[in-house]
């Protein structure tokens, strides 16, 4: 059974271990030289706008999802990232973590727009994001190095249902059809 909880400093070593996995590292914005002590420092001194959750299965951390709320004029936005232990892909861990972050964004932080990027060849992740309501907003060609190649990233976003951005988009679409 999966349990989702806020990340703790003691999780740093396990999370870095997941980040370094062959099926994970190419699809996240991290380098193989990532050090556990640097990640621990990030956890010891979190930004007030950073909200990180881990998923556990039988007491083992198997995934991480982070939501970083914007500040100032971008306080209504959040950027999302997620990664899952390669041995737990396809088991609903990512879905659960993202749904947890969406609930936080919609019902606690009143974030109107959640943004993310996904590397061009990570089609399973892109399909998951689409299933959870994220829409493709564009493509950044050659924006990140992945395994020695310049990969592209899809830019995706999800709007809070019934929120002001969604309402504004509906008005714009309606005026364009009239």
Question: Secondary-structure map with pairings?
Answer:
Blueprint: E1 2-6, H1 12-19, H2 36-44, E2 50-57, E3 60-69, E4 77-84, H3 93-107, E5 113-119, H4 123-131, E6 135-146, E7 149-159, H5 164-177
Parallel strand pairs: 4-5
Antiparallel strand pairs: 1-2, 2-3, 3-4, 5-7, 6-7
Helix content: 25-40%
Q: Which residues form runs of ≥5 with pLDDT under 50?
A: none
Which CATH-level-2 architecture? 3-Layer(aba) Sandwich
Strand content: 25-35%
Order of helices and strands: EHHEEEHEHEEH
Give the CATH class: Alpha Beta
Distance between the termini: 51 Å
Q: How many beta-strand segments?
A: 7
CATH superfamily: Gcn5-related N-acetyltransferase (GNAT)
Alpha carbon gyration radius: 17 Å
Average pLDDT rating: 95
Q: Major β-sheet, in short?
A: 7 strands, mixed
Might you state the CATH topology name? Answer: Aminopeptidase
Give the overall form: globular
Q: Helix count, per DSSP? A: 5
Biggest sheet: strand arrangement: 1-2-3-4-5-7-6
User: How many domains make up the 3D coordinates?
Assistant: 1
The SS-based structural class is: alpha+beta
């Amino acid at each position: 059974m999966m349990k989702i909880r806020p990340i703790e400093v003691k999780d740093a070593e396990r999370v870095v271990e997941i980040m370094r996995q062959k099926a994970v590292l190419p699809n996240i914005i991290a380098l193989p030289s990532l050090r556990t002590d640097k990640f621990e420092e990030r956890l010891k001194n979190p930004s007030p706008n950073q909200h990180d959750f881990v998923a556990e299965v039988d007491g083992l951390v198997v995934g991480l999802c982070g939501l970083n709320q914007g500040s100032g004029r971008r306080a209504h936005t959040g950027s999302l990232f997620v990664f899952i232990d390669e041995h737990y892909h396809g088991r609903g861990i990512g879905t659960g973590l993202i749904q947890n972050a969406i609930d936080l964004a919609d019902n606690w932080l009143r974030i109107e727009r959640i943004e993310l990027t996904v590397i061009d060849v990570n089609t399973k992740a892109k399909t998951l994001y689409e299933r959870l309501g994220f829409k493709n907003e564009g493509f950044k060609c050659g924006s990140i190095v992945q395994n020695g190649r310049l990969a592209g990233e899809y830019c995706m976003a999800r709007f809070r249902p019934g929120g002001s951005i969604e309402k504004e988009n509906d008005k714009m679409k309606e005026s364009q059809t009239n």
